[in-house]
Amino acid sequence: MQAMRPTYHSANGDRLTWICSGYKPPNLHKWGPGVRDIYALHYIVSGKGILETRNATYTLKAGDSFIIFPQTEVFYYPDHQDPWEYVWTEFKGEEASLLLSMTELNLQHPIVTDAPVNMEPLFHISQNMASKPYEHIRTEAKLRLLLSYYMEHYPKEMVVEPIPYVRIAKETIHNNYWKASLTVSDIVSIVKIERSYLFRLFKEEMGMSVLSYLTAYRVERGCELLKTTQLSIKTIAFSVGYKDQMYFAKVFKKATSYTPTEYMMLHATEMLTKQ
């Protein structure tokens, strides 16, 4: 696999960006001492080699991996009796730091050993120059897939945080409020906790029931559509989860003290007054 460089990159420096990938056959090639301004992840296919970095020396073998961190001095070279063969990929972006923080790889410990699966095929990130936007997206997806395997097989031990049940319930409502078939039972099923427990947590945090929040959010979205579009009230009702226009009007008036028509006219009058 030859080194390959794309000509299309995201303009956002924070985003994870693939730079190039390559293959090094068994020989006496060495690199350093030196620093780079990117991340370079290596996987040893066969043989042995040495990595020297941050006053530490690591002897590596087939199935091991090491990473070069930006602006970190390194020196790596093959074992003279059994020179390593490896694949590598380079990438950059602040998001890379976040993804790597979910693995065991860090500045103090830039290696992981004994991969439980063959990682080598995952390093074949790109087969072309990734010059087109869709090629760039596929290349980035392959890089994320590669890093996901390191997250799976070499996960960093993390403090287990409480599951944000109320947030999940709210996001479920925000993403599905337009479905007339959405029920509180559906929300409970998605959140995956006991119904009464969710109700108690939701009431404590939001000051209302799950059903009341769903209704309030539908009315809020209805208000936005009435103010910003020329859609019919029937269309707006359907768009926020009500098949029955009359029932929508009843719910809307109870929540706002206005019928949908009155609310639309009131907003139109306010706009004219401001002009």
UniProtKB/TrEMBL annotation:
The UniProt record lists the HTH araC/xylS-type domain at: 167-266
Does the entry feature the keyword Transcription regulation, yes or no? yes
Q: Which CDD domains match?
A: cupin_MmsR-like_N (cd06986)
The record, for SUPFAM superfamilies, names: Homeodomain-like, Regulatory protein AraC
Superkingdom assignment: Bacteria
Please report a single Pfam family linked to this protein: HTH_18
For this UniProt record, give its keywords in alphabetical order, as a comma-separated list: DNA-binding, Transcription, Transcription regulation
Q: Which SMART domains match?
A: HTH_ARAC
PANTHER family found in the cross-reference section: ARAC-FAMILY TRANSCRIPTIONAL REGULATOR (PTHR43280), HTH-TYPE TRANSCRIPTIONAL REGULATOR EXSA (PTHR43280:SF2)
Name of the protein this chain belongs to: AraC family transcriptional regulator
Q: Which organism is it from?
A: Paenibacillus septentrionalis
